[in-house]
């Protein structure tokens, strides 16, 4: 994330010799993106195996009660990389808006009685993460309906975007080109694991995604960019997901 690199005020450089005080200092903060109030909440629900179909059916029938309060970006069922899970993204303009939405939902008797009271017993756990779009990324819609989505999560080494941002940007954007997948958004975690970034991709099918991976392994341009980024990487995880019928990204 090249644009995430910020100049550090002199006061932020601690215990450094005067000769090196002008050099940038590695920071764990997310940088300029914090100046923008809009953020995206990633939510992952793990469902009891015997309740997976029932949970999806209930959500399909009642999701309108939830979207009446705030904007749903996408809702997916995880096919590979996690069994009996759903992943969804919600957009908020501010933390105050999210707090107001959560308070309103808690006081919405229809939402509580017709969905929450029935859905919660079907779940084994819930997880959430607050993310921002990185400055060089825009949230896009897929090129056409259908297809599959891949969420790739990178746990970068401590130091923040000032250390690994440009390498991550180069690695991701090297594959956002004709003949490859379509990058729908790149995100940086604000609450959750720190130094974590995500790339949301769209492919025509799982087989097309496999073809793209094979092509990338033989593309010197992509290989060079990825090799440079890997030196800053601790772990990587991916999930292949299918959009639910009610997902805005479908």
User: What's the count of strands?
Assistant: 8
Through-space gap between termini: 27 Å
What is the top-level CATH class of the largest domain? Alpha Beta
The number of domains: 2
Strand content: 25-35%
**Unreliable residue stretches:** 1-33
Query: What is the CATH topology classification name of the largest domain?
Result: Alpha-Beta Plaits
Order of strands, widest sheet: 1-3-2-8-5-7-6-4
CATH architectural type of the largest domain: 2-Layer Sandwich
- The overall pLDDT, averaged over residues, is 88
Structural class: alpha+beta
DSSP helix fraction: 25-40%
Largest sheet: 8 strands, antiparallel, barrel
Coarse morphology? globular
Q: How many helices in DSSP terms?
A: 6
Helix and strand element order: EHEEHHEEHEEHHE
Radius of gyration based on Cα positions: 20 Å
Family: Belongs to the NipSnap family.
Protein name: Protein NipSnap homolog 3A
Pfam families: NIPSNAP
Organism: Austrofundulus limnaeus
